């Protein structure tokens, strides 16, 4: 505890890390890949928060989102949550040093679509799902909701360990929450957004994360987002538009929500919008059905009909149904999902290394050396929702090396 | 994963929970380091002043041929150097305590009316900061507004800086605090807190225990005790509660309500200002507060719960801890109730104003100097920048000698 006293020497970024390249950027700032030195062993991802622009209107010192992320990162330690190595303050900039992960689910899905559209092996998917749910259970047990789960935010190390990353939007749900509509200006990717949020619910519950997990599961199977809606932009800053197209994509596959199955449906603020959805669009009035979608997907990607180690099978469908339940109170919790038959049918626990026996080689994460590349939108790990990736008003400085 | 394991993984437990002995030694260590640094800083200041006055007297003698005046005494070292009088640990603690109470009033009172989790967190962040920093280096008056503002961010109670300062200025004694004053210590504060901002309060437990009491109340009136709540029957519960707490099913809940108000008051005041958060877990603090006001109820409740698990080895240990915590809260409660010793506080404050570290007084200036390092040099008046840079380098160099680098330069 002696390091608590003010006499302790303070660490410097350049003293412990050599920046290798740039990984991604967002509204918060940028992420760099770095190599440890001087006793710091291994590779790291360093998130540099956008330096505050003093003198600007609305300047409030260290941003609330940086504070929030620091507050969460320092509290969380779990094998399936990206580990925070340290936080460094230097030149009035905040750096969070994370463990480095070579892959993420977005990149893995991309690799399978690009190289001859081979399916992700069933065992790999099972291991990914199991690890993801364990990480999520840990977050929820700690009263933390992630709120922005999507393939790009799920990291995978070269040892096949799955780690939930980017807690930039995560919140403690033991504390009073602002809603998506008032407090946060950040826009969450809509493809993974839970129906209760699309229908105007003002309150997040951990169930929103489980919906996203369902979407991710589906995406691992079909190699494309299951509900790939187009985002309705905010036209004026006061009102949030109903995400009609996104809701429609969901309905086209799993059908309209019914108040018999979701008793609180009729009290959703945007409930009235649902009836207008079905008018005129054939696929809305005659949805494909999740079951049909599932078996077609399995067939398309040539999953065999057995054994359970080779195919997600009917247990997979049952898990997917449980995760994509419209009613957030009936949707599986992380704890329930982990006990699902899908994870047991193999007779053994899902592999701890998701790549075990897959025979797949995934490309290394691309890092760029040039400032110019920052604007190209296809960098791994960046958002792909069509939102502007880099919201800096001016070109930000790159980290100096060495 | 048990609640216990979850708490043990929290930064509050890992970094900010201590044994009483450790807490004492930490404070005296911090005080010793600060005393040394303050004395060194004053020594440097004297050297500078001497050099300056020597210089000016030399030029003066060149000009009018009379250089005998005030430079003489220092030159031959005849003038007695008076060592600066520093604060003791107890004096430091009195100052910090005073500002904690002050902060509590500011946060919960007009015009802020912050919820207790915001004000409570700010008080805890403030107390944590002063475990490793001395009021001689950073006057509590400078840190207080910054800690309160930081708490609005950590607790998700967003308040625009402009509005925060406007409201702050309505508080007597804080009418001159500027936005710059609020932000200047922010980095020092966050670093001093080791970037851990999560404070675990007993408020959730307060609500939870109340719900437990509602269940007991219901059980005494109608037989519907939930499974696993107790190994007593409703009948036994009614009997036992009556024997232990002298309350019948008719006046039990009124008694709980009465206790709830008192406990909440203790948690919102004495618990926050005292060292309770450093020494006990949130649930221990909660039970400590209940034990202070409704000992019979808490005795019944915990005995009932503990007896459910006959192997529970820690019952006596638990009671010891709760007892200690209750005593701490009781003592603090009495202190809060007593008239503050204004004379003593003002004596300490006067003493403090004479021993403040001269190199750390101007936080706004220091902050500006460091901000510029982050890359805005070009925009500044060059001469001004150069002058500031020299001053900064000097103070940094001196800072390095003592502490190693302060806030890091490029």
Give the C-alpha Rg of chain B. Answer: 27 Å
Strand residue content of chain A: 5-15%
* Low-confidence residue ranges of chain A: 1-9, 176-186, 371-402
Helix-strand sequence of chain B: HHHHHHHHHHHHHHHHHHHHH
Looking at CATH, which topology of the largest domain in chain B would you report? Cyclin A, domain 1
Name the structural class of chain B. mainly alpha
CATH architecture of the largest domain in chain B: Orthogonal Bundle
Largest sheet of chain A: 5 strands, antiparallel
Mean pLDDT of chain A: 81
Total domains of chain A: 2
The low-pLDDT segments of chain B are: 61-78, 375-381, 394-410
Binned, the helix content of chain A reads 25-40%
Account of the 3D structure:
- The complex is a heterodimer of chains A (about 400) and B (about 400).
- Chain A has about 400 residues and is of the alpha+beta class.
- Chain A folds into 2 domains: about 10-100 and about 365-375, Phosphorylase Kinase, domain 1 (2-Layer Sandwich), CATH 3.30.200; about 105-345, Transferase(Phosphotransferase), domain 1 (Orthogonal Bundle), CATH 1.10.510.
- Chain A is built from 12 helices and 10 strands.
- Chain A has a 5-stranded antiparallel β-sheet with strand order 1-2-3-5-4.
- The longest helix of chain A is centred in the N-terminal third of the chain and has 20 residues, at about 120-140.
- Chain A is globular, with a radius of gyration of 22 Å.
- Mean pLDDT of chain A is about 80; it is low at about 1-10, about 175-185 and about 370-400.
- Chain B has helices at about 5-10, 10-15, 20-65, 70-75, 90-110, 115-130, 140-155, 160-170, 180-185, 185-190, 205-220, 235-245, 250-270, 270-275, 275-280, 280-295, 295-305, 315-335, 340-355, 365-375, 380-405.
- Mean pLDDT of chain B is about 85; it is low at about 60-80, about 375-380 and about 395-410.
- Chain B contains 21 helices and no strands.
- Helix content of chain B is about 70%, strand content about 0%.
- Chain B has 3 domains: about 20-60 and about 85-200, Cyclin A, domain 1; about 205-335, no CATH class; about 365-400.
- Chain B is elongated.
- Chain B is mostly helical and about 400 residues long.
- Classes of the chains: A alpha+beta (about 400), B mainly alpha (about 400).
- At the A-B interface, helix 2, strand 4 and strand 10 of A face helix 3, helix 6, helix 7, helix 10 and helix 20 of B.
- Chain B: Keywords: Cyclin.
- Chain B: One of its GO terms (molecular function) is cyclin-dependent protein serine/threonine kinase regulator activity.
- Chain B: This is Cyclin-like protein.
- Chain B: InterPro entries: Cyclin-like_sf, Cyclin/Ssn8, Cyclin_C_2.
- Chain B: Pfam families: Cyclin_C_2 (PF16899).
- Chain A: Keywords: Activator, ATP-binding, Kinase, Magnesium, Metal-binding, Nucleotide-binding, Nucleus, Repressor, Serine/threonine-protein kinase, Transcription, Transcription regulation, Transferase.
């Amino acid at each position: 505890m002696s390091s608590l006293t003010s006499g302790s020497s303070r660490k410097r970024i350049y003293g412990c890390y050599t920046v290798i390249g740039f990984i991604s950027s967002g509204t918060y700032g940028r992420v760099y890949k770095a190599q440890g030195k001087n006793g710091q062993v291994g590779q790291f991802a360093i998130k540099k928060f956008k330096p505050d622009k003093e003198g600007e209107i609305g300047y409030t010192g260290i941003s609330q989102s940086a504070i929030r992320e620091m507050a969460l990162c320092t509290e969380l330690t779990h094998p399936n949550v990206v580990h925070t190595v340290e936080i460094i303050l230097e030149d009035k900039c905040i750096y969070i040093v994370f463990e480095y992960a070579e892959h993420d689910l977005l990149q893995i899905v991309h690799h399978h679509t690009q190289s001859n559209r081979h399916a992700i092996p069933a065992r790999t998917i099972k291991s990914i799902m199991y690890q993801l749910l364990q990480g999520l259970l840990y977050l929820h047990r700690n009263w933390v909701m992630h709120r922005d789960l999507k393939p790009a935010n799920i990291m995978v190390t070269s040892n096949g360990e799955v780690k939930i990353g980017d807690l930039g939007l995560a919140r403690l749900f033991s504390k009073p929450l602002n809603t998506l509509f008032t407090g946060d200006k950040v826009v969450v990717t809509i493809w993974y957004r839970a129906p209760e949020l699309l229908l105007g619910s003002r309150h997040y519950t951990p169930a929103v994360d489980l919906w996203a997990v369902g979407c991710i599961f589906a995406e691992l199977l079909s190699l494309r987002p299951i509900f790939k809606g187009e985002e309705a932009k905010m036209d004026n800053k006061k009102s949030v538009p109903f995400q009609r197209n996104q809701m429609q994509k969901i309905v086209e596959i799993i059908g309209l929500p019914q108040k018999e199955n979701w008793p609180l449906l009729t009290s959703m603020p945007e409930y009235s919008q649902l009836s207008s959805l079905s008018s005129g669009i054939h696929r809305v009035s005659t949805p494909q059905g999740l079951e049909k979608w599932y078996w077609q997907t399995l067939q398309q990607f040539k999953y065999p009909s057995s054994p359970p180690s080779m195919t997600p099978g009917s247990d997979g469908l049952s898990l997917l149904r449980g995760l994509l339940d419209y009613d957030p109170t009936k949707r599986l919790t992380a704890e329930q999902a982990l006990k699902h038959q899908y994870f047991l049918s193999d007779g053994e626990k899902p592999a701890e290394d998701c790549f075990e026996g897959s025979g797949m080689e995934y490309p290394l994460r691309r890092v760029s050396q040039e400032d110019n590349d920052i604007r190209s939108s296809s960098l791994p790990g960046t958002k792909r929702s069509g939102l502007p990736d880099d919201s800096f008003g001016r070109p930000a400085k790159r980290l100096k090396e060495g | 994963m048990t609640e216990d394991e979850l708490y043990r993984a929290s930064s509050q437990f890992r970094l900010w929970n201590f044994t009483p002995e450790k807490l004492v030694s930490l404070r005296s260590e911090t005080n010793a380091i600060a005393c040394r640094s303050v004395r060194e800083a004053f020594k440097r200041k004297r050297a500078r002043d001497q050099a300056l006055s020597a210089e000016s007297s030399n030029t003066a003698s060149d000009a009018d041929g009379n250089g005998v005046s005030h430079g003489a005494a220092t030159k031959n070292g005849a003038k007695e150097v008076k060592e600066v009088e520093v604060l003791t640990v107890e004096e430091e603690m009195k100052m910090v305590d005073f500002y904690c109470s002050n902060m509590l009033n500011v946060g919960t009172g007009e015009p802020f009316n912050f919820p207790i989790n915001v004000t409570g967190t700010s008080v805890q962040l403030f107390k944590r900061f002063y475990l490793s920093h001395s009021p001689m280096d950073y006057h509590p008056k400078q840190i207080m507004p910054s800690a309160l503002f930081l708490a609005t961010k950590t607790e998700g109670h967003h308040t625009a800086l402009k509005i925060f300062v406007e409201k702050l200025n309505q508080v007597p004694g804080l009418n001159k605090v500027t936005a710059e004053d609020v932000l200047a210590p922010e980095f020092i504060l966050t670093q001093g807190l080791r970037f851990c901002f999560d404070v675990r309060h007993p408020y959730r437990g307060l609500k939870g225990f109340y719900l437990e009491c509602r269940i007991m109340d219901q059980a005494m009136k109608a037989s519907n005790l939930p499974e696993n709540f107790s190994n007593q029957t409703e009948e036994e519960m009614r009997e036992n509660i009556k024997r232990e707490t002298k309350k019948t099913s008719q006046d039990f809940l009124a008694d709980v309500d009465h206790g709830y108000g008192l406990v909440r008051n203790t948690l919102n005041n004495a618990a926050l200002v005292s060292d309770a958060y450093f020494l006990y877990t949130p649930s221990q603090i909660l039970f400590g507060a209940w034990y202070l006001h409704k000992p019979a109820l808490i005795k019944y409740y915990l005995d009932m719960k503990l007896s459910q698990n006959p192997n529970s080895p820690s019952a006596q240990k638990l009671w010891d801890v709760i007892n200690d915590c209750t005593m701490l809260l009781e003592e603090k409660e009495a202190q809060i109730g007593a008239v503050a010793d204004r004379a003593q506080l003002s004596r300490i404050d006067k003493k403090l104003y004479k021993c403040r570290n001269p190199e750390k007084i101007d936080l706004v200036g220091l902050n500006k100097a460091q901000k510029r390092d982050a890359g805005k040099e070009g925009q500044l008046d060059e001469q001004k920048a150069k002058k500031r840079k020299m001053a900064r380098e000097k103070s940094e160099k001196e800072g390095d000698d003592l502490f190693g680098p302060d806030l890091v330069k490029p």
